[in-house]
Amino acid sequence: MLYFIPKPNEALLVSGGLRQRHGTPFRVYIGRGVIVLPLIHKVDRLHIGSRSVRVTVDAQTAQNISLQVEATFVYRVNPDQQSIAEAGSRFLGTTDEEMNRIASDVFSGEVRSLVGARSVEDIICDRDSLNMDVLTATEPKLLAMGLKIDNFQINEISDHNNHINNLSQPELSRVRKLAEVSAAQADAEIEKAQQQAARDKSLYQKETDLQVSSNTMETAKQRARAAQSGPTAEAEALIELTQRRKELAAEEAELREVELIAQVIKPAEAEAKRRTIEAQAEAQAQRLLNEALASHDRIGLDAEIIQVMPEVAKNIASALAESRITMFNGGEGLTQLYSEITALTQHLIGSARNQALSNQDDSQTTADVANALALSETDVNSVDSAEPIGS
């Protein structure tokens, strides 16, 4: 006895013996082993896993337009006892290529039939509907052979007359136009962005150049100022020195003016005052003399002259006291002035005394004259002792 175990994607078909099950020529074992007797039983292995087949179908549509439909379908042996027995009775002993060809023929026939009932537009626009119709039409036929469809998919639909391409041209043109417009807009946006970037770059470069130029000018200006700081300081110092010299010259001119007034004008004014006083004294004496000569004899005139001498001295002193004479040589100048006035007065008194003495022999008259002269000298001395006038 022998013991056989099937693979997971295999079914063991055992034939021979005295009995069969379900009216099939095989006993089917899936997923478990079986004991067989040599010379009595025969064991065959049937692959029940999936098979993939790619087919190309030439078909005409309802518009009599020839199409090529490329599709892929996946099928397998239906994993129940009856289907495996059906598939075994049909495909046992055949190759996989032969089995695939048989299944492809079934699919090709159904595809031709379904394509012939549709227009090209329907086929292109609704492939899923064609897929479902093919599956629905082929499934019973394949099940009769013990097969089951796992998947059916149309991969490509084409034609030799470019009908499909012609149908797509309007859409392609529209899409192409949209693509071109989009590309042009994209190019425009890109160009706009590039130009904006160029403008921004140019603006930034301009601002940078202006800032660099401004910095360069400011640096040059500061350097020029630094270079001219020495000459500028010298010029300012020279201007200031010139101004000080002008001020000094003005002060020196004022000083010279003061000195001129003090040394020339004021002494001249004082001299003029002195001469005026002397002239006034002489005029007063002459007036008195003239009056005496006109109204008295000689002796009486001499007496009157002697008597008025004190009055003359008083007038001189009063005139000096009321005069604002500025003395620039201090006490020495004042002393000199008083000395001259005193000498003048004494000269006048002396002349009067001599004249009176020569014309009068009377002792009483002589005594009166002497008294008058004494009084006159006293008045003159009072003038000589007076305080200096002026500054």
TrEMBL record:
InterPro entries: Band_7, Band_7/SPFH_dom_sf, Flotillin_fam
Domain of life: Bacteria
Coiled coil (residue ranges): 176-203
Similarity comment: Belongs to the band 7/mec-2 family. Flotillin subfamily.
Lineage: Bacteria, Bacillati, Actinomycetota, Actinomycetes, Mycobacteriales
Signal peptide: none
Pfam family name, one: Band_7
Keyword tRNA processing among record annotations: no
Keyword Cytoplasm appears in the UniProt entry: no
Cellular-component GO terms for this entry: plasma membrane
UniProt-recorded name of the protein: Flotillin family protein
Annotated organism of origin: Corynebacterium canis
Keywords of this entry: Coiled coil, Membrane
GO molecular function: protease binding
Compartments, as annotated in UniProt: Membrane
Primary location: membrane
Residues covered by the Band domain: 7-188
UniProt-listed GO biological process terms: protein localization to plasma membrane
